[in-house]
Amino acid sequence: MAISNQTPFKTLTLPSPKTLFNTTNSPIPNFLSIKCNTSLSCKPLIAEPEPIFTSVKTFAPATFANIGPGFDFLGCAIDGVGDYVTLSVDPSVQPGHISISSINGAKGLSKDPLWNCAGIAAISTMKMLGIRSIGLSLTLDKGLPLGSGLGSSAASAAAAAVAVNEIFGGRLSVSDLVLAGLDSEAKVSGYHADNVAPAIMGGFVLIRSYDPLELLQLKFPFEKDLFFVLVNPEFEAPTKKMRAALAKEISMKDHIWNSSQAGALVAAVLQGDLSLFGKAMSSDKIVEPKRAPLIPGMEGVKKAALEAGAFGCTISGAGPTVVAVIDDEEKGKEIGSTMVEAFLREGKLKASATVRSLDRVGARLVSSKPR
Amino acid sequence: MAISNQTPFKTLTLPSPKTLFNTTNSPIPNFLSIKCNTSLSCKPLIAEPEPIFTSVKTFAPATFANIGPGFDFLGCAIDGVGDYVTLSVDPSVQPGHISISSINGAKGLSKDPLWNCAGIAAISTMKMLGIRSIGLSLTLDKGLPLGSGLGSSAASAAAAAVAVNEIFGGRLSVSDLVLAGLDSEAKVSGYHADNVAPAIMGGFVLIRSYDPLELLQLKFPFEKDLFFVLVNPEFEAPTKKMRAALAKEISMKDHIWNSSQAGALVAAVLQGDLSLFGKAMSSDKIVEPKRAPLIPGMEGVKKAALEAGAFGCTISGAGPTVVAVIDDEEKGKEIGSTMVEAFLREGKLKASATVRSLDRVGARLVSSKPR
To answer: Which residues form a coiled coil (chains A, B) (predicted)?
Structure first.
């Protein structure tokens, strides 16, 4: 299932997790009537869905979160790089449970589903569907480096949630899948949807609120091109320092500045104005000035990107990947080379660059084997 | 001259006031070449323009600034209420100067042009045009109550700047006029363009930066209706307290919240989504909670407006006018009545309500007498 969104502008308002199963006026998927208490151990009234495939393979893309002044509430999906999940009906797995059979492309990840991003999201999705009689086996193929700032955990979670949904007939809404992904993100990095929402939905997503969860899909015009130059240095961004670098309080002046940039960013996305997008994304006065010094050479890399003609440049997520934007792929490759040189020169870090376009579709079914 | 903007999205980048007359790479209007030092007493190289009218009459609308989370960087123009300026060539006035002959509709305003909003803006505009040989006489007809939160000073400034520009042939750009208006606003209430920019440009305007001044015009779709219910209580908002009520520092959490609302507001304007617009405008967690208690009954008025069906409600500018939004004029009148009752009940204040639509045009020439 390719989740493509035809309408130019889509608002999804989701019940808060604690009210999802409330017996009163909770919005519920139209196929499923649930009467239960507010815990997640509720029993659906209708029959448990049967799997319609013996196995599925899904993909979910990398994501670029924060986008400068959009810190914690804006993110977008990046085409061509991400994680794959293969999910199979497995009689050897305890019914109602999931087992992670293998993880490829990354070391050090737990195979315990309760401690694995894909596993957590898969379990949440199974609970939403009320799966009690089928056991599943999952393989995770990581295409994204861990801790790169490109939404690696979110991609795993998104691919897994979509896989579970698809194997049982695709009944859940996009909003349900985001909630399942959020369960995963909450365990690994905090209750933030700015990676997992665009990973599932594609395109640009603004999170207007978390309780209830309200997601706005912002459509970048189809006729315009947008390329991301992703430059990933051989460096482990110190996550604790990255979080600690965030100010607890900020000046009114900086708030007004960053808010106006965020407004400009939204306008730029909806109008396909890359010049404005670039300027706004590069204008974060709150988070980037604190985090950039923790990535050796980052400021020089940004300067080099802008001088080479990029419309804008900033840190992707919490880094260390640095991302620049341009409207031409070849130009993007030149900018990437310049940025790689700058990382070495300014930060003494080796880096690799890749040029990707916007992923407007998000997490999707790649292949399936029918029963 | 009705300043109507045909393009869906328009970015104006203006030189900062101190660089406007710089000899190096300053952007300058294409009709005028200026070589001078950085003070405003520079001499234009081309001939001083001749007046093409003996008199002109201009109008500039009321404006609704802040719009909740758009504090200090978002504003829009309101149709059907504002200030008129009548400007005439007057041989009895010293050449290069302006005299205010009368002010109607308001008491207590200075007739000294240096201390009057219309006068200050007119002087700035005359300086931009290099007017040295003609004296002008100005009449100001106020249609907006002072200190109401509806951009009264900005309307006077806008109407005056446009009047001077028009009487001399309309050579200046919208951006120049905003700068002239800013000179006025800076003297009376601070260097803010969120009233004077929409007063001149019409529609919604986002100020992305002040130095250089960059204004984004956000087009609300023509096919959609948008009505403002303006409720003005008989109350003088204590300006010093209103400014003092602003926090100097805010929490990161509140910053993220308000920024995401501002982003949602921009998206709502560009998509004509009044439901989202209303929710976002009503969701300010930084300024409104501090200022509302200073306007007796305001919180009850907002609650009444929302219960009566308004999409959203907040303080206009620094108040005390409270504004609600709806998509139907008749419905707006009902909401207005409810809000007036609430002001009396909750705040012991009499109030009057009016329903207006969005002014998409901004300051304009109303009539003229040719030479």
So the answer is: none
